[in-house]
Write a structure and sequence with these properties.
By secondary structure, the protein is of the alpha+beta class. Helices cover 33% and strands 31% of the residues. The chain is built from 13 helices and 25 strands. Helix 1 packs antiparallel against helix 5 and helix 10 packs across helix 11.
């Protein structure tokens, strides 16, 4: 009988893998299983063979770590890897009881980028194969599994003959027993997979006064910065976040109250979730940015939450594609803080620009308020963000403004692309400037090829002889491709005041014209000095003639 990995639970999984690693390496190396209650420093099992160290990280994720669910799992894996590489291992091995998808496997192997460490995965297939090789280990662990299955089967036959009606009756009876434990409190319970969830419920409104219940958490060393901030936001300011304290971060959880409920619990994971949302009296609000009494900008939003904690109170406003969280300390004179998160994913440029302008207002610093019709809900004075952050936001806004102008001109609307090549970025800026009636130098057009019609002229012969001359031509349509879309701006002229013909083409064309065979002869011309041809939309009314305007793209050399 094979190990049923999705049923063995974390402790069983750890025991099986520890025994398996011990069996494989004990004869030639030192194997150490680390008890994580004191903090494992990224090591669950350490195998030392001379100067080489292997570190095993065990993650009991029976259903993997996709990006669509369990979003904290990849972060946990990355943090474990980061802590492990501080010990300079030769090899780091992630052990999971599931079959990985291609994306999950690529995520794990990508951790090795830039690191002097090999990264491997032991997944379900690998574990099953190793246990098949060590059949005695597999038999020792599945023996209990068979016994438990037989015992449960016998109980079901003996006690649940009436099916779900019998289950309901048993649960109801057990609930009555729980109700009799205390005059003020009772416990509701639910089975979720292999976990039984207990929910403490007051029997009357004054239960917390007559029979108080106190929960004390004792930590095991300092929390990670991210987790400490999450605890502060949730408990300190009452923001509606689920916070999970892993087993390694909790030394003990102590419940003080009625005797039947009191006790100390160790080796536990603690999580708290926001209580059921209380409907707000008003949800339409505005986020206003101020210069003294003057409103410099105002954006509509939805009031999603108002909370209070041990340190102060909180306000959360939802915006299209983003969220603004305001934390206001209760202590007088203490500064309020604001957290603004947003995503441009799947947004069209106009919506993305609104979010970026809000971010730039916040980054610039200054006063702001969250206002409802009844008055100001909260606000504060923001310090300016570092100049680098503001410049990065300005560059991103510039890109989206270019994209919005081109989409509007072409009447093709689509979400902001996730990635853009340097060539695409240059073409997008050129397109916007052309739409606005400007002349631009194109780094993509450094030469042009013409076909002669056989008719000569003094100017043509002078050009073919090597003298610089002005050349002007037309292209049927200037177009660029973004996110799989063909965006056509319309016909353009190209021009340069000083071009020369390639020497060999000039000699051949002059000879052909002299012999009366010039028709169909091709010649290539290039602007002098390594410059580029200039573009102008055919229907544009240029304000500066054929003088090109700069592209002004940071990190790119201006074409001439």
């Amino acid at each position: 009988m094979a190990v049923e990995w999705d049923r063995v639970g974390q402790p069983g999984f750890d025991r099986i893998v520890e025994a398996l690693v011990q069996r494989m390496y004990d004869a030639s190396a030192r194997v150490e299983a680390v008890n994580g209650r004191g903090g494992d420093d990224g090591i669950d099992i350490k195998v030392t063979h001379g100067s080489r160290v292997r570190i095993f990280q065990l993650k009991y994720y029976p259903d993997g770590f996709p990006t669509t669910a369990h979003k904290g799992r990849r972060k946990s894996i990355r943090q474990s890897f980061t802590r492990a590489v501080q010990h300079q291992p030769w090899e780091w091995i992630l052990v999971v009881p599931c079959t990985l998808t291609t994306a999950e496997r690529e995520f794990v192997t990508s951790l090795a980028a830039g690191q002097a460490v090999r990264v491997e995965v032991w997944d379900r297939a690998k574990l099953d194969g190793l246990l098949a090789t060590h059949a005695d280990l597999e038999a020792s662990f599945t023996r209990d599994q068979l016994f438990e299955a037989a015992k449960v089967y016998g109980q079901e036959r003996a006690l649940l003959m009436d099916g779900v009606r019998d289950v309901s009756a048993r649960v109801t009876a057990l609930g009555r027993q729980a109700d009799g434990l205390d005059d003020h409190w009772t416990v509701d319970f639910a089975r979720q997979g292999k976990t039984v969830v207990h929910t403490l419920r007051a029997k009357h409104p004054r239960a917390h006064e007559v029979s108080p219940v106190e929960i004390t958490l004792t930590g095991n060393g300092p929390l990670t910065p991210d987790l400490a901030q999450a605890v502060r936001r949730s408990l300190g300011f009452g923001l509606p976040e689920e916070v999970v304290l892993p087993r390694g971060a909790v030394e003990s959880l102590t419940v003080s109250g009625p005797e039947w409920l009191s006790g100390e619990h160790r080796d536990v994971e603690v999580r708290w979730q926001p209580a059921d949302k209380v409907p707000l009296a008003e949800t339409a609000v505005e986020v206003a940015f101020l210069d003294g009494e003057h409103v410099t900008a105002c954006y509509p939003g939805t009031l999603a939450h108002v909370g209070r904690g041990s340190v102060g109170r909180s306000v959360r406003v939802d915006l299209a594609g983003g969220s603004l969280e305001l934390m206001i300390p209760a202590a007088s004179g203490a500064s309020a803080s604001l957290r603004f998160t947003f995503s441009l994913e799947k947004l069209e440029p106009a919506a993305g620009l609104r979010l970026l302008r809000i971010y730039e207002r916040i980054a610039a610093g200054g006063a702001f308020e969250v206002r409802a019709s009844a008055g100001v809900i909260g606000g504060g004075e923001l310090p300016p963000r570092p100049e680098a952050a503001r410049q990065e936001a300005a560059q991103l806004r510039s890109y989206i403004e270019d994209l919005e102008a081109v989409q509007r001109h072409c009447e093709q609307y689509f979400p902001i692309p996730d990635e853009l090549t340097p060539a695409d970025r240059i073409a997008l800026r050129m397109a916007r400037l052309l739409i606005q009636g400007h002349c631009v130098a194109s780094p993509f057009l450094t030469r042009a090829r013409f076909t002669l019609n056989g008719q000569g002229s003094p100017t043509l012969r002078s050009l073919l002889s090597g003298e610089p001359h002005a050349v002007r031509g037309s292209i049927a349509a200037f177009a660029l491709t973004l996110a799989g879309r063909h965006l056509e701006l319309g016909p353009v002229h190209f021009y340069h005041p000083h071009v020369t013909v390639e020497t060999e083409d000039g000699r051949r064309a002059l000879a052909a014209l002299g012999a009366g065979r010039g028709e169909g002869c091709d010649v290539t011309v290039r602007p002098v000095g390594g410059e580029c041809f200039r573009h102008l939309l055919r229907d544009a009314a240029p304000g500066s003639g054929w003088t090109p305007v700069p592209l002004e793209l940071p990190g790119f050399t201006e074409p001439r």
